[in-house]
Structures are given as C-alpha cells and as structure tokens.
From TrEMBL:
Gene3D superfamilies: MFS general substrate transporter like domains (1.20.1250.20). It comes from Parasedimentitalea huanghaiensis. One of its GO terms (molecular function) is transmembrane transporter activity. The chain crosses the membrane at residues 30-48, 150-169, 190-215, 227-244, 256-274, 280-299, 311-335, 341-358. InterPro entries: MFS, MFS_dom, MFS_trans_sf, MFS_Transporter. Residues 189-372 form the Major facilitator superfamily (MFS) profile domain. The keyword Membrane applies. This is MFS transporter. GO terms for cellular component: membrane. It is a multi-pass membrane protein.
Length: 372
C-alpha cells in the first residue's frame, strides 16, 4: 500500500509540466489548482483517522486505495480547467485519506513486529514515488500522452499492489467515544511534532510538484531531463529510509532529526546557489537524504502517544505534516509568482533549519516504550 500510494503520486508529479502546458497554466494558476489538491487531503485526514480507529485501518486503506486509482484516471481525462480542479480535489482527498489509514496500519505492524520499522515502510512510499516518476520519464522520452500514461501506469501499479494487500490482517478496532469536532489540530507535545513534520513535508511536496519545473527554468534542462529530478530525490529517500531505522537506533530520534535537517538545508542551498543541472540534481539528492527520516520519526512519536488513540494522533499530526506536503506546491507557486522560483526554493532552507532547532521535540521519553 505504501508503494501504491507513492507510485500514484509520482505518476502525477512527473507530468505536471505537461499538464500545465496542456491547460496553459501560469505559476499562479497551477498554484491555485494544487491548493485544491491540498484542501482535499486536509479534509480527509480526520475522517480517515476516525474510520481507521472505528472500522480498522487495513480495511479503510484497501477501500480508499481503489478510489485513489480512479481519481488519477479522472485527472487523465479532464477536458477543462474546471474538471481538472474537481479531479485534483478528489485526488488529494483519496491520497490523504489513504495516507493516514496506511500509517495507522503500519503502526499496528510495527507494534506486532516489536522493533522500529516505520522508516522502512516509508521507504516503500518513496520507492513507489520513484517508480511512478520514472514512468513519467519514459512517457516523456517516447512522447506518450498524459491520458494513456496515467491509465496504463496506474492500472499496472494497482494490479500488483492490491493483490499483495489482500494478505490477512486483523486491525485494532477501538471505541472512539462521543463524536467531537471533525478537524483537530494536535495539542501539546503533538503540536511540536506536527510542526516538525510540516517543515519536512512542505519540502517534499515542493519537490514533487516543482522539481521538474525548477530544472527547466533554472538549469535549462529539457522536459525529459527534468523528470529525473524527482526520480533522484525519491531514490535518495528510499535509500535513506531503508537505513533510517538503524540510524535512529544509533543516534536517537533527536540526533537523527538534527542530522537530517542539516543535510536538507545544505541540499537546498546547492540546488539554488549554482544554477547548473548537475548541482541541482546533487542538491535534490541531499534534500531527499535529509527529508527521509523526519516523517517516520514524527509518525512513530505520534503513534506512541500515551494520551491519544493512534488513528486520532496520526490524523492530527498529518493535518500539519501532510498538510505541508500538499500546501508546499501552492506556496512555492505563489512565492515564485511574486519573486522567482529560485528565491521561492530558499524558503525550503529556512524550514529545514527549523527542523534542527526543534529536533528535541521528537524525543520518545514521554511516549509509550514499545520496544525493549
């Protein structure tokens, strides 16, 4: 499920320049449409968390995944800007809903296994995103249109992953108590955890939707070359997340977060400061290395909270965390419209530095100790 979620998002991200060209979108137009995608995701977070606690995370994940595939088809066949806007809202809603549910499921699996593995689960998302973005590179190279690319790639990804997701699993089902407000921001220590996740995921979202355009405008890359930007970023995320659990055990959550934030800051400065294709790719790789461990650390901390149910805690942290993932693209779009794309990317360096400053908030001392 992590691979499928990443693959569908990577398929979309790799063809954003082509979508923008098809509909003749300015940076502000594209930013506004991406804001609708973000709104759909944010609306789905609390609902997915509540249903995951009440119905079971595995069941919710599988059902939302099928709808998620369908929304990519809607983007592929959208005939007008209005239809594209509606499709992107639904795409964001299913992406966000699946994200919360599958992370609750992953937390259940982590408790069952009895050792930290959340980073490895998130590596599978990055692997899927890299494969999806790689399909965009192939499609651009061989001049395959957006519609056949989206439909064929999404169908293949879904056929493989949904078959594996049929494995038997009994999710925890909990009584969530009287219905309260649907939208809840994290409180207390969880708010700080959510803000750290926001700083990281805003950078991830910006990379997903703007890396290709950044390479075209800042380094003179072709559209085919530009599709490699998110692929390199995703490969770095996969490698680092596969190593992340071991690094966290060695350095601790706080030390791992400080290292990650520092590397991400350097990566942004490399991408922006030199203006060449090679250095931009190097910067993207370092950004992937830096961002890789932050979300797994934040989600493990949230799932371990002693006072809030896992589904509710992850939904609240996701409201800030993955809200950043989806708000990043429109924020960069509006900043680019006001200044330039290179100046807009410097905002990511500021947020990466904030991760270093706030890293102590990821300490697990006040959360449940699941692992002996």
């Amino acid at each position: 499920m992590f691979i499928l979620n990443g693959a569908l998002f990577g398929i979309w991200a790799s063809r954003i320049p082509a979508v923008a060209a098809r509909f003749n979108l300015s940076p502000a137009d594209l930013g506004g449409l991406l804001l609708l995608l973000a709104a759909g995701a944010i609306a789905s977070f609390p609902l997915a968390g509540r249903f995951a606690d009440r119905v079971g995370a595995a069941k919710v994940t599988r059902r939302v995944a099928i709808a998620y595939v369908g929304t990519l088809f809607l983007i592929a066949i959208a005939p007008t800007n209005l239809a594209l806007a509606a499709a992107l809202f639904l795409f964001g809603a299913t992406h966000g809903g699946m994200d919360v549910a599958m992370n609750v499921w992953a937390a259940e699996a982590e408790r069952h296994i009895g050792r930290p593995v959340m980073s490895s689960f998130h590596a599978m998302f990055s692997l899927g995103a890299g494969l999806g973005a790689g399909s965009g590179f192939v499609a651009e190279t061989y001049d395959i249109g957006i519609t056949p690319h989206f439909i064929i790639a999404a169908t293949v990804a879904a056929a493989i992953t949904l078959t594996s997701a049929r494995a038997e699993w009994t999710s925890d089902v909990r009584e969530t108590g009287p219905a309260g407000p649907i939208f809840r921001l994290p409180k207390g220590p969880l708010f700080a955890v959510g803000f750290i996740a926001f700083c990281s995921s805003l950078g991830e979202g910006a990379m997903a939707d703007w890396s290709a355009i950044f390479l075209v405008h800042s380094s003179g890359a072709t559209e085919a070359q530009a599709a490699l930007g998110y692929t390199v970023f995703s490969i770095a995320m996969v490698v680092m997340r596969l190593l992340g659990d071991g690094i966290t055990l060695r350095l601790g959550a706080v030390g791992a977060a400080r290292l990650a934030g520092s590397v991400a800051t350097v990566g942004v400065l490399c991408a922006v400061g030199f203006g060449t294709f090679g250095m931009a790719l190097t910067g993207f790789f370092l950004m992937g290395v830096g961002y890789a461990m932050i979300m797994p650390l934040a989600f493990s901390r949230a799932a371990n909270d002693p006072h809030v149910l896992p589904g509710a805690a992850l939904a609240a942290v996701s409201t800030l965390g993955y809200g950043g993932l989806l708000l990043g693209p429109p924020v960069i779009g509006f900043l680019a419209e006001a200044t330039s794309l290179r100046v807009a990317f410097l905002f990511l360096a500021v947020l990466a530095a904030m991760i270093v400053l706030l890293s102590k908030k990821l300490s697990m001392q006040d959360s449940r100790n699941r692992f002996p």
